[in-house]
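for the writeup, i need someone to sanity check this before i put it in the appendix. the sequnce is what the collaborator sent (i think, or maybe the updated version? ugh). structure was predicted straight from it, no edits. if anything looks off just tell me and ill rerun, i have time this weekend
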Amino acid sequence: MQEVSQPPRQRRRKNKVRSKKKLQVLETVNDARIITSQSLAAIYSDIPYITLWKYLNQLEKAGYIDNVDAPALLDKKPGRNPNVFASASNHNKELTETDNQRGKFHRYMVSEVAGIFHAAQNKFNIPLHEWYYEPKGNQINGIKTCNPDAEARFGDQHFFIECDRKTEPVKRNGKGTDIWSKLDYYTALFRQGKKFRVLFLTLNVRRLNSLRDAAIAHDEQKLGLNIFWFGLFDLVDLADPALFFTEEYWFIPSSDEGQSLLKKIK
């Protein structure tokens, strides 16, 4: 019996859908600038992994993205060996190799957090309404504007994401590129009546304690500004979003006890 082929119009419609999905994947890589295949799989959970991998190979062959050999990015996450993809249009050739690796690792951190929010959306059935990379900060008189690494609206909660690689000084340096200036900005934003939390993710406990101590010292009026939450990047495990959201591994200025993010999310 002769196989009945699909009508041309139906085939064109399916190809158009595939092309749209592939374009969305490309836009995600461009927005993130560097991202792992595991994060992409969490973000595009509606695409079979073999199909997603096919899209990535096609985009790489077409020169739109690069498959990056980046062991320096992944040595902070032992036991993980995902492929890392970078936007081919966002490479900065003028950076030194050291600075380039620092920039890559920072972008990798942020895109992994994007992946964990998408994974949690599926696991906990909480909608991720918005995710933005590097949104522009609000203008506040007398305050240095801070551009967060990312912004998320997850359930009924509003988060700003700050991925800390220990490269910025904690104390004010006069350039506005310090942690103290970030605390200034978010505190001023809070005093305008905005409701949000700032998630600082860093690489070790010593740095976490330094950031938390700075937030305590910064709160001169003792307002108990628990908008600042501090955690370790090790919490970001795409295979287990519960570690990031439900375990009491986050720390706030007003308490030495670990806190859970999910308890306050609806």
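The domain at 1-91 is CATH 1.10.10.10 (Arc Repressor Mutant, subunit A). Residues 42 and 119 are 5 Å apart (CA to CA).
thx in advance!!
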